[in-house]
Amino acid sequence: MSEPIRMCVICRGRFAKRELHAFLQNFKNISSNRQFYICDGCINQKEKISKYLSKFASSADLGHIKERVLNGCSD
Length: 75
Prior knowledge:
The protein is α+β, with helices and mostly antiparallel strands. Helix content is 12%, strand content 25%.
């Protein structure tokens, strides 16, 4: 069985799901959360992350983003 492949939203690189950091952000203040992935190379580029988040929310506050634990998660 092959590993799930996901894309880093910053650099658009494709990686195995276990190699990425998964984040949840509630962009519309409703019960559904949006999940996105960031690779190790982009994780410290807060300016680029803020730019990505600003596409979905008028005020991208990095404090409201929560990293998900990937172990045991399934899509």
